[in-house]
Amino acid sequence: MQTSTPDQNQILFERAQRVIPGGVNSPVRAFRAVGGTPRFVQRAQGAYFWDANDQRYIDYIGSWGPMILGHGHPAVLEAVQKAVLEGFSFGAPTEREIELAEEIIKIMPSVEMVRLVSSGTEAGMSAIRLARGATGRNRIIKFEGCYHGHADALLVKAGSGLATFGAATSAGVPETVVQDTVVLEYNNLAQLEEAFALHGSELACVIMEPIAGNMNFVRPTPAFAQRIRELCTQHGALLIIDEVMTGFRVALHGAQSVLGVEPDITVMGKVIGGGMPLAAFGGKRSVMEHISPLGGVYQAGTLSGNPVATACGLATLREIQKPGFYEALSAKTQRLMQGLQSAADAAGLPFCTDSQGGMFGFFLMNELPQNYQQVMKTDGARFNKLFHGLLDGGVYIAPALYEAGFVSAAHTDADIDQTIAVAAEVFRTLA
Ligand code: PMP
Predict the structure, then answer these.
(1) Which of 22, 62, 257, 317 has the fewest Cβ atoms within 10 angstroms?
(2) 270 labelled catalytic
(3) Where are the domains of the chain?
(4) How distant, in Å, are the alpha carbons of 132, 206, 260, 289 from that of 233?
């Protein structure tokens, strides 16, 4: 692009900021952490999108996870186009909702019944209400750096000690709403034991990301994940595994299959909607039967089980079950990670990576972090330079160092090699 050409992204950003807070409908899109002008997307196809200047980018966000097949997959497009012609929304049950529920249950062995909703936030919020309603208890445990949507009770950071209440991370969240949320450090076994010793009999649930993708990419140690399950069972608390990001993404059967830990409730989103507003929560029949109209836990939605969204989700789930899908996806992700690691090593840049299936993280440090505090030790200024270097080279990664990245089935080896070549250039300027 020539410098004399007006930047259409900038023009749109200025216009957007006059009518939408920060110019965006979800904060991270505003590029606040990294600075610069957000790219306004015009269209997307396969592994690419084009911005308002008609610049092409290799997309490693994929709508923050849903686009596992890439943009505009023909089978998904066909299913959605057919569904649109039949009607947008009925507010009455459809056969397609049963099909999607059956498909989810077939893929996720820990899920015996499932309720469809429209966003991960709604699914996470409803799962917490269900856990509280089913156990008759109020207190919940979450982990610092894990995100489960923006329900009030979950927008909490750690207090000064385990016996103290957590503090809201958002204005507008009353103290009374977060006082039952205990926030613990991810991968801290001693703290976990202590919390159960203190609060075990009052705990409705523990909610966790089975691979934390909202603090870049942090795995639980096997001992930590196992111990959460054991303690929940011992104390009569439910384990909620939030697979909104990891489900159908890191492996067909979710991160719970990688960890070998069975939750009582699973929260799902992103891939199950294939890019349409669709999410779900499901679990053991005995727990799910507490949901209205069977039980006393209220939960509802005008657009829940939307016919176009369910068509999109079903078509996506059918594609990802084809033989060899995850092997190919993992191989691509690993090719990218190995290439980036070699390029960083050659440049003498501190760097490490981790990945599972089509989800990855990389850190500008020598050792993989274990928790949020360690992730946040990343050199932010260096990350921002890396981000903008990649962006200028036509590679789009998340505009914040605490976000995971995603490879889709549409990314080719050539896309990945081009990404590595762009990164190698940028790394040389950073070391
Ligand atoms: N849980 C997890 C693990 C997530 O990553 C997200 C969103 N990134 C959510 C819940 C919330 O989902 P949504 O943005 O659809 O409300």
Answers:
(1) 22
(2) yes
(3) 8-60+323-430, 74-320
(4) 15, 11, 15, 19
